[in-house]
Amino acid sequence: MGRSSFRSIREKDEVNSLYEKVTEEERTTEYKEACFVKVMGEDGHGRVRTWGSGISKPQSSEDASKSIRSQIREEVQSQFDSQIAKMKAQMDETTGVQQNMQVLLERADIH
């Protein structure tokens, strides 16, 4: 694990201290993020604070999770469409067999 500066340890302690001042029910992700922003300040210049200069806001975790959700949704939809197509084919096949059986039964009644 890399070295931590005194400042980063102090900032982490400040965030945790603010977070722990509220009841368990109030300890939400949003509240913890608000504590972080209060200690560290707002993100600036299109960058995500503490992620380094190479990560811009469009690359943040929120955008990444939206992209992943979209990919999963597309995969599930594709699998769903495939299953529906298979089921329709099976129904068509079953209908064809039923029609053939009906014709055979009608012929058997004639003879």
TrEMBL record:
Residues 47-71 are annotated as: Disordered. This is Uncharacterized protein. The lineage of its organism: Eukaryota, Viridiplantae, Streptophyta, Embryophyta, Tracheophyta.
